[in-house]
Design a protein that fits this description.
The complex is a heterodimer of chains A (about 80) and B (about 90). Chain A has about 80 residues and is mostly helical. Chain A is about 75% helix and about 0% strand. Chain B has 4 helices and no strands. The chains are: A mainly alpha (about 80), B mainly alpha (about 90). Chain A: It is found in: Endoplasmic reticulum membrane.
């Protein structure tokens, strides 16, 4: 079995993914079938956010990947210039 | 047909089915809750796939079998090899 930090990190990732999955499933799949007077609707944002938030997160991820690639490419170019 | 072509075919088919149902081009009168579940469906599938990937990675990291004896043995082999090469003149 993996030891120490490996186990903690792994189980942490698993727990986070399960929490996100359950919340999102209830939000997108189950809420439309629940009576709009029920108190559970208090715990969920308006439905439009169910698409807006993942879209924004996805765009942010793309931004970070692009910035990282730019950084690495610039660093490489400076290194080759120095070597010449 | 290549794998890419198959995936694109499947995506195009499912995508057009979803678009047709959401826009109402088929003239079907779906009940309101069904329509409310239908339109965020692509986003939901993407998030679910992402959660599955994250969860699988986390689970496999947590249950990976460490071989501590093999790791120590490998470290010893590396030390021996370095000493041997240094003796033969290779500078690190």
């Amino acid at each position: 079995m993996a030891t120490g930090t490996d186990q903690v990190v792994g189980l942490g990732l698993l727990a986070v993914s399960l929490i996100i999955f359950t919340y999102y499933t209830v939000w997108v799949i189950l809420l439309p079938f629940i009576d709009s007077e029920h108190i559970i609707h208090k715990y969920f944002l308006p439905r439009a956010y169910a698409v807006a938030i993942p879209l924004a997160v996805g765009l942010l991820l793309l931004l970070f990947v692009g910035l990282f690639i730019t950084y690495v490419m610039l660093k490489n170019r400076r290194v080759t210039k120095k070597a010449q | 047909m290549t794998k890419l072509a198959q995936w694109l075919w499947a995506l195009a088919l499912l995508g057009s089915a979803w678009a047709a149902l959401t826009v109402g081009a088929l003239g079907l009168e779906l009940p309101s809750p069904c329509r409310e579940v239908l339109w965020p469906l692509p986003a939901y599938l993407l998030v679910a796939a992402g959660c599955y990937a994250l969860g699988t990675v986390g689970y496999r990291v947590a249950t990976f079998h460490d071989c501590e004896d093999a790791a120590l043995e490998l470290q010893n082999h590396i030390q021996e090899a370095r000493a041997d090469l240094r003796r033969r003149g290779l500078r690190f």
